[in-house]
Amino acid sequence: MPEIAVDAEIDEDPAPAPTQLKGKRALAYLAVCLILIGLNLRTVFSSFSAVLPEVTSDAGLPGWSVVVLTTVPVTLLGVFAPTAPVLARRFGAERVLLGAMAVLTAGLLLRPAELPGAGHLPVLLVGTAACGAAIALCNVLLPGVVKRDFPHRLGLMGGLYTTAICASAALGAGFTYPVFTATGHWTSALWFWAVPAAVVLLLFLPPAIRQHPVRHQHLKGGVNVWRSAVAWQVTAFMVLQAMMSFSVFAWLAPILRDRGVDGGTAGLIVSVSIVLQMLGSLFAPALAARLKDQRVINMVVALMTGGGFALSIFGPTELIWVWTGLLGLGQGSLTAVALTMIMLRTRDAHTAAHLSGMMQGVGYGVGSTGTLMVGQLHQATGGFAAAGVLFLVVGLLAAFFGFRAGRNRFV
């Protein structure tokens, strides 16, 4: 899922200094670390869904727990997003990112463990929640660090780390089931993703520790985005795209397997769909920025996404690659143009940062209801047909609010 380099620390006094580095090699090393952090921010979502039937069967998970496990990490993206700037003011963005990677690694290690006498469920819940909280901090702070430390390479670095975030979802979807097949254990398939997180934690340790934290104050002022109708229209657009985006990560693989696609092929289909998301996210923002307003493009990509999701459930399985490809292109473009609205609907960096915080808090928090509703509908009906209807409705609503948000107006 692409992000935009909006600085969450923009209201700090004094302004945060760049990461303390010596020479171009150190700067290149930091760039690699930041990209590798991005490469670990979505595997927790797509890896679990890739082996969901095996986890449910072997661990004896009740239906409610599957719904919770697919919803909680997304909800926590919204819950913990507002805490990231507060922690950064106290400890520094680099050290908070380091701590978040430590929590993410611990959560990934804990997730497949088994508690004697209690089974897998308690640690699975705690580990998944820890991962969601850690990713929330990284989501908010990583764009600002990229913007602050690479002001002359912002386009390149922004493209590389957003591509890494998308690639992480594709890797989780594509490699988890093969690891399960090779080892014969779903626990090994989930533990596998703690390895790259631990490697990045060790690599990022030197530059993070070297940065001496400075206590900052929060300055108030500027536009109150919470009172702006335009801001709420953009946020509603973000909520609806998040409902579909994280439902793809959590449920597309189980949907395909429910339709008779084997686990390995389902993971490959989801990976290709996410790669197409990357293509959409690369080209859609540039097209949107060139247009006089974004009403048409917002509506088109919203309908592509909702329609692609529904066709993946209802359409002939012989064309499943076509439906998931349409979904991938639509979803990547939809996410990218929703985030591009931050820049296009604001006049200055301070307002953009505040709108970004509003969109992330409300967007991820409310957007997590998408995965919740899919899980509850599946549990109630025993299939995904109701979810297909749901996302036709969500796609239409996203088109409506995309039309409203796409008008050439400012917060």
TrEMBL record:
Keywords: Membrane, Transmembrane, Transmembrane helix. The chain crosses the membrane at residues 27-52, 64-84, 96-113, 119-142, 154-177, 189-209, 230-253, 265-284, 296-314, 320-344, 356-377, 383-403. The keyword Lipoprotein does not apply. It holds the Pfam family MFS_1. InterPro entries: MFS, MFS_Cyanate_Porter, MFS_trans_sf. The keyword Membrane applies. One of its GO terms (molecular function) is transmembrane transporter activity. PANTHER family: 2-NITROIMIDAZOLE TRANSPORTER (PTHR23523:SF2), PTHR23523. This is MFS transporter. It comes from Paenarthrobacter ureafaciens. The lineage of its organism: Bacteria, Bacillati, Actinomycetota, Actinomycetes, Micrococcales.
